[in-house]
Amino acid sequence: MTSSPPVAAEPPWRHVHPLTPLVRGGLVVIAYGSWFVSDQVNRISSQRGGAPGQDPTTRHLGLLLALFLAGVVLFVALSWVSWLFSRFRLTDSLVEVRSGVLFRRHRQVRYDRIQAVDITRPVLARILRLSQVVVRSAGGHEAHLRLSFLAQRDAVALRDRLTDLATHSGAGAHPDEALASVTPGRRVIQVPPLRQLQAALWRPSVLLLGLLLVGSAVELGLGHPQLAFAAVPIVLGVGSAHGRQLLNELNFVLETTPAALRAQHGLLELRATTVPFHRIQAVELTQPLLWRPFGWWRIELNVAGSHPGREATETSTILPVGTYAEALDVLALAIQPPPSDLLAAATQGTGNAVGFTTSPLAARLVDPLTCGRTGYAVTESAIVIRHGRLDRVAQIVPHARIQSTGLSEGPLERVLGIATVRLHSTRGRVHPTIPHLSRLEAERFLAEESVRAGVARATSAHEVAREPHQSFDYES
Question: DSSP assignment of 62-96, as one string?
Fold first, then answer.
């Protein structure tokens, strides 16, 4: 008589941190409390000089306070019940989350579909030393799992564990075995906050905003307040956009692990964004005109699985502002960089030097300023594109990451015999485009690049099959 093999025990379910209801409801309580106090102050101020008793709330202020406190208690109680029914666990193949009281939700993400694992720390969570773990999946923003909230130490350990499981998912690794191979990140670069502030100020829109503020102050001093107040919407719109970007990118630190880049940034809300190497689809180096005297560059990525909007912004920037040497170091970590002379020609050069193919003379009629700089070069692993004479732009797209190619011609372009080539990458901040090539050159490029991309994808798939612990996945 043979005995049946023992059944493996199911991994236990875990709760998030008990202080989670306080973090979730804290901002709501603060916002409602601020409105309540402000409303009462306005009502009391409006009674000055008026007949007493006109404001009905003054006689029932105690009742309103009691109702407010009762609402706070009820909200915290409901949040606690929600916390009681929220659980998660890690199995051999996926991460699971259960939540909901009246309407139950059970969500799962397989390790091989995890795009990245990030950590966010809102202000109130940072005070309580808590963190949120965001598991980004291939299904997009709505399919992400959010574990809110865990102790900071537990969140970091869980982030590293899930990242390693996602990397080794094809090798049949057990969760406990995968955890043993997690290594801490190595710091690559830390951007000084003063440099980030200077770079934020040296932008045309910010300088124009400063001139607008000076003009508004002069108009106000001359007794024309209506003209000064007319500038308020512009100041608030432009200023808030740049302010949010600066607050989000301050305290930027880039680390590298064997499987990914890890960017930590944020002043009020601290974020730790993980970008797996095999998810990087395209890289762009930019240098605005006003940054040129300082030699500063910015590097952004297209990352497979990120979606337009705030998510793409959070995961795209791996160097908000850095020197050329720092940009080269970061680029070498993100992808296989082109030769140094080719990269120098892409970032600062013009003409046909170092293998670049540029726009024909006919393109000067539609692009007189950047015609001599616009062009591309082909390396064994990638396409290198450059354009822009005032704001310099260099883009690098690996052959294996090109989703498709396209050619477009406007009416004037058809007359001049030129065309624009577009390399379709995954959605993101980088839009690889080669404008104003000759039509024959554009058609030749499309034909040759189709062959190069096919060979690169086949080679990449072969390496994945041969080396399961290395991910060179191609997103189709």
Answer: HHHHHHHHHHHHHHHHHHHHHHHT-EEEE-SSEEE
- Is 200 within the bounds of a domain? yes
Amino acid letter for position 30 = I
Three-state SS for 366-431 is CCCCCCCCCEEEECCCEEEEEECCCCEEEEEEEHHHCCEEEEECCHHHHHHCEEEEEEECCCCCCC
* Cβ-contact 346, 379 below 8 angstroms: no
Q: Is residue 209 part of a domain?
A: yes
From CA 183, how far away is CA 321, in angstroms rounded?
27
User: Could you read off the pLDDT of 72-123 as tens digits, one per residue?
Assistant: 777 778 778 888 888 999 988 889 998 887 788 888 888 888 877 889 998 8
pLDDT value, residue 123: 83
Q: Residue holding tokens 């395209």?
A: 282
One domain, residues 22 and 165: yes
DSSP tag of 288: -
Whether the pLDDT of residue 131 is over 80: the answer is: yes
Q: How far apart are CA 393 and CA 351, in angstroms?
A: 15
| Predicted pLDDT at 173 | 42
Whole-angstrom distance, CA of residue 401 vs CA of residue 453: 8
pLDDT at 176: 40
User: Whose CA is closest to 11, among 89, 117, 105?
Assistant: 89
d(CA 279, CA 301): 10
CB 329 within 8 A of CB 441: no
Final residue belonging to a domain, choices 155, 182, 209: 182
CA atoms within 13 A on the CB side of 22: 12
For the chain, the average pLDDT equals 80
